[in-house]
Design goal:
Elements (H helix, E strand, L loop, with lengths): L5 H16 L2 H17 L3 H21 L5 H30 L18 H17 L8 H9 L1 H4 L7 H4 L10 H35 L6 H32 L17 H7 L2 H12 L8 H20 L3 H21 L10 H20 L3 H13 L10 H18 L3 H24 L14
Helix pairs in contact: 1-2, 2-6, 3-4, 3-5, 4-5, 9-10, 9-17, 9-18, 10-15, 10-16, 10-17, 12-13, 13-14, 14-15, 15-16
Length: about 450
Amino acid sequence: MLFNSFAFLAFFPSVYILYWVFPHRFRREVLILASFIFYGYWSKIFLIHFLLIVLLNYAYYYYLEARGDRRKLAWIVLANLANLFLFKYYGFFRTILQDLSFSVEGMETLESILPLAISFYTFQLIAFQVDVHRGTFSQKVNLPDFLLFIFFFPQLIAGPILRAKDFLQRISIPKVPRILFSEIGIVWILIGVIKKVLIADQISPLIDPIYSDPQKYSIGGHWFAFYGFAFQIYCDFSGYTDIARGCALLLGYKLPPNFLAPYFAGSLREFWRRWHITLSTWLRDYLYIPLGGNRRGTTRTSLNLCITMLLGGIWHGANYTFVIWGLWHGFLLWMERLWENTKFGKLNIPKWVRIPIVFHLVCIGWVFFRADSLQLALVFLKGMAVGIGETPKYPWGFSILILSFIAVHVIEYGKMNPTKRRILFRILLPVAACVVGFITAGSVSGERSFIYFQF
C-alpha cells in the first residue's frame, strides 16, 4: 500500500479515527492490527513469513538471550542475515561465482519475490538483539509491544530504522497533546506529498529514458539526468520519511529524523550525518565501531570505512552497481581523512566552495546507484563528456530541478521552527489539497512507487 495511493487515503483516516475512538488500553492493538492489514495488503503469504521471523526473534529474546554469551547472539544474528540472504542475495552470489568462473552446478536458480521492507526490518531486529546483549536496552518487552515496534506501519516499508530505546520506552509514556502533534504531523505529511508527487514523480519520466539508453542522448541530456536523479531520490525518499513521521505524530508517536538538508553538506562525513541518518548511525554503531572505528591507526581506519560503506552499498541492492556505489563513498571518506591530515586540509576553505564539490562527488555515486548495470553507468558517465545523441526537449525540466533544489531545502530548514511551521501550514495546505485531488483522479502520480520500497 503506497502512501501516494487512493487505498492509503482511505486506510489512514480510518485507522486514525479508530485509534483515538478506542480506549487507551486498546490503542496498541488497533495499531498492530492496522499494521498487519497494511503489510498484508501487498502479500498475505509474506505477512505470515514476516510474522514468523518476528516471533523467532522474540522467542530468542524471551527464552534464550543471555548477556555476555556471544555465541547465542551470533545464532540469532545469522538467522536474520540468512533470511535476508536467501531472498535478496542468493541470486547475486550465484552470479558472482559464475563471473569468477566457479562451477554453480547444484546451485538452483531461485526466482523469488523480494519481501517488502526485508532490509529495514532485518537491521531493526539485529539492532534490538545487539542492544539487549550489550545491556544498552534493558527494559522488559512483552510480545504486543515487540510486534508494534517491528510492524509499526508508518515506518514499516522504508524506515526510519527504529531503535528500541527510542520507540519502546515511549509506548507507555503519556502522549504530547494531540493538537500540537496534529499540527506538526499534518505539515510533515503535506511536505512529503509535495516532495513525492509534485517533484520526484515529475522528474522520474524525464530522466528514466536517459538512464535506460544513455547512448541516445547528448551531453546536455546526460547532465540533466545527472542532477535530476539527485533531486528525485532526495524528494522521493525524504518525502516518504516526512509522510511516515507525520502519520506517526498523528498517532502520538515520534519517529527519528532521516534527512537534514544533505546537499548543503560541506564534507562527506557531514553528508552522511544528514543523509539517511538512521542507516548511517546503524552502520556506525553496529559495524564501523565493532570493526575498530578510528582507534587502530590510519590504515585500519581506512579499511573499516571501506568495509562499512561497501556493506552499506550491498544492503541497498544485489547488484554490482551498489557495490561500486558503496566503495565510492568509502573511498571518498578515506580520501577526505587523508586530505585533512595534509597542510592543504588545514586551510579554512569557505563552506560555499565545499558544498558544490561534495554535491558533485555524491552525484557521481548516484549514477551507479541509479543505473541498471555497470556498463550503463560507465556509458552514462562517458556521455557526460562526449555524448553526441539527441538533446531532450523538456520545457519545464530545468525549472523543476532548480525550484526543487531550492524549495525542499528551504522547507527542510523551516519545518521545525514553530513560527515558520505555521506559515508552511497555511501555504502548503491548499497546494497539498490539490495534490490529493490529483492522486484521487490518478492524473499525476499514477501511484508511482517510492524508490526505497525495493530495498
